[in-house]
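Sanity check. The docking grid for iron/sulfur cluster depends on where the pocket ends up, so I'm generating a full predicted complex first rather than guessing from homology. Inputs follow.
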Amino acid sequence: MGIKIIPRHGNTFKEKLYLPAIVGGLKVTFSHFFKNLKDTSNIETLCYPEQRPKDITNRYRGVHRLTKREDDSVKCVACFMCATACPAECIFIEATEREDGIDEKMPKKFSIDLLECVFCGGCVEACPCDAIRMDTGIFSFVKKKKEDFVVDIDTLLSHEPMKGGN
Ligand code: SF4
Ligand code: SF4
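Predicted complex below; grid placement will be based on this.
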């Protein structure tokens, strides 16, 4: 069996000094620094929250919403597919029977812990009836208490899809 020996780097006197590499790195840093000092238009950093991002698209995964049927009732059938798919295990659903005959079940309680959520979109992908979406465009949510980050069914149903996204 042929063995390929890979030469080790960093053995020369110049490489062991580290200084040429440090100087090379600083050269790049300072070249960007002076370039941006002359012309700030290329700087990607936003002075948030005074400046808000303008490039949020409809595909951006923001805070969730539960979609509704034409009669304004909840679309979710409490199948638990989203909760099963969720890697962060942050979806809590309590199912109840649906009295109007549209479906067998509906959620009595449906909440998402946004502090646990990793915004992977797995719940949206897993839902068989398009009942949960993340197209609200809500990217900033500030609360005072940990418990307030758990959004309940009423809040999720009140969220609207983002308007005017790219
Ligand atoms: S976005 Fe991901 S982590 Fe968040 S609730 Fe959905 S599946 Fe769970
Ligand atoms: S949101 Fe979709 S996947 Fe989750 S319980 Fe409701 S119907 Fe099932």
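Relevant for the grid: The chain has a mean pLDDT of 92.
Also worth noting: Strands lie at 65-66, 91-97, 105-113, 132-133, 150-151.
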